Amino acid sequence: MWSLFLSFLKVGTFGFGSGPAMLALIEKEMVGKGLMSPEQFTEGVATGMALPGPIATKASLYCGYHVAGVPGALLALVGMLLPSTLAMLLLVKVVHQFRGNPKLDGALRAMKPVVVAVFLFLAFGATRGMSPRWDTILLGAVALVLLLLKVDPAWVIIGALGIGLLFY
Helix, strand or coil for residue 92? Predict the structure, then answer.
């Protein structure tokens, strides 16, 4: 249990960017340490995407529960949220002092392409838990087109859930 907490403390500390970017770190901690199979991890992410709220938080709960039940879910969640909560409390005190600072602006500009790379890495990694059948490829392609056409992601997810319920 201590190891689970430390894993999510690590993810919460070094998982910069958005929740989906943190999924790569969570996957490394869970699948890389043999606590979950790639298929189980992908299933957990898919389950979490069907629910509202931040995906990294839901993934921490799912993974923690998978490893150690309700206590594991709570430890994983606290480990995930503790670093950002403490950092945010500190940041709120000093953010206005550095607003418009060219060094800070440059650092944030440099992080954007790295976050995009992490998204792509995660997207390619997530395909390991999928079967490369024509229907899953078609479903993914249709979802991508709908998202590019600016269809609300919630409707795309609800549509996929409906298709899954009807045809799988």
Answer: helix
Q: What are phi and psi of 99, to 5 degrees?
A: -60, 130
Is residue 46 within 8 A of residue 163, CB to CB? The reply is: no
pLDDT at 67 over 90: yes
pTM for this entry:
0.59
Which structure tokens are listed for 105?
A: 């602006």
Which residue matches tokens 């899954």? 164
Tell me how far apart the alpha carbons of residues 21 and 115 are, in angstroms, rounded to a whole number. Answer: 6
Label residue 37 left, alpha or beta by phi (over 0 means left) and psi (-120 to 50 means alpha). beta
Q: What is the pLDDT of residues 84-98, one digit of tens each?
A: 899 888 977 766 677
Asked whether the beta carbons of 156 and 146 are under 8 A apart, the reply is yes
Written as one letter, the residue type at 61 is L
C-alpha dihedral sign at 109, 114, 116, 119? negative
User: Percent of the chain at pLDDT above 70?
Assistant: 97
Residue 161: both structure tokens together: 């859930």
